[in-house]
Amino acid sequence: MKAISLLLLVSLTAVYCKKSATTRPVVPPPVAPVDNYKDPAAYGTPFAGVPDTKDIIMYEVNLRAFSAEGNLKGLQNRLDNLKQLGANVIWLMPIYPVGVVKSAGGLGSPYSVKDYNAVNAEYGNLDDLRTVVSEAHKRGMAVILDWVANHTSWDNPWIANKSWYQQDSNGNIISPVGTNWLDVAALNYTNNDMRKAMIRAMKFWVLTANVDGFRYDATDFVPTDFWKQSLDTLKKFNTRKLILLSEGSKKEQFTAGFQINYAFEFYDRLKVIFAGTQAPSTLFTANTNEYNALPAGAFKLRYTTNHDVTSSDGSTVDIYKGKQGALAAFVLAAYMNGIPLLYNGQEVGSPKRIDFFKKDPIDWTANPDMTEEYQKLIAFRKSSEAVKTGELTTYNDRDIIAFEKKQGSEQVLVLVNVRNAEISYTIPAVHQNSGWKNALTGADVTLGNQLNLPAYHYIILKK
Known about the structure:
disordered N terminus, elongated, 19% strand, alpha/beta, Immunoglobulin-like, 18 strands, TIM Barrel, eight-stranded parallel beta barrel
């Protein structure tokens, strides 16, 4: 009987185990998410007139200050003025919706981006942007957008992806380290999904608005390998000639794909030279430092002002001691080995510390004589290969910044008085008793041994 019972127990156990094995739920293998992304359809025809890097005359537009309207239509209405000035590349400060959470005040910073794929309603809409780009192209001017890759606003939808952002030891998203930019959250470039989304957003504007490149903000904060990754991707648009400008100073940015980055040191030296606290020769040192070991075809962006400078240091007529000083400083920035930048308002000697957190329209009727002189200076630079890419020879002096640019048979001699007093300058021996033409007026000029230059005046000679 015991044997029968034991046999029955074993049989039941076997049946139960077999039944359990057949009813255990089957777990399917993990399935990778499907990426259905497709590039948006291309709008318009790529602009064939994008200038070579050496030929760029860049003009920065702050839409809140550029017109009384403070929008894209206001810019459209003044495109002929920019063409007449001589600009061939328009850089638009960020045109995207601005964050509200933790706002830095006023209308908010344009560099606190709430949505990478939209136009700020304050400025208009996508059609307005397309019209500006199209009308600029008709006038022979390229248009580039300002791109903010280091951070977003706190109310950008990306903030839901916490791993896309840098965090402190407690897991809290943080602002960019080492800054006081509390209105923005720092992005995490170890996250590949965030990188992919950033690159797709860049491509969106090239395709949907037909823009001609980007000025990239705060590039030194972002890993160079991301710039290589993103710029390589953009360059796959091989029917487009894109302008890629870095607001950074690292030399490796050029090997990553940028054509231009910022001449921070040159500006710093220029400012203190006009303040009278450093020798003119320090500008030559800055030029040497900035171009040391750069690859062929790489350029520095030279400026006397921009949106940051104007808001922090003052207008050009403040920094460089008046209208004549502002023009003299521009000659140095535009003629000594760099790509010149103008910021809206400097061509009329606007005295404002333009606040880009609010609407602050420029008075375009001021100082037409300055505008005319800027036009002459830009026109000669555009015509002179020696100025753009010629070999530089410098002549040290305690009051005058003197240099020569030479390419082939073309020679250009630039003499700039950076002092608030008339200076009697001893002409370098190699140029004494030589004949030239005034590059701006066409008048014949014979240099003797001495030349008197009034305060902050300059002379540009050619032969």
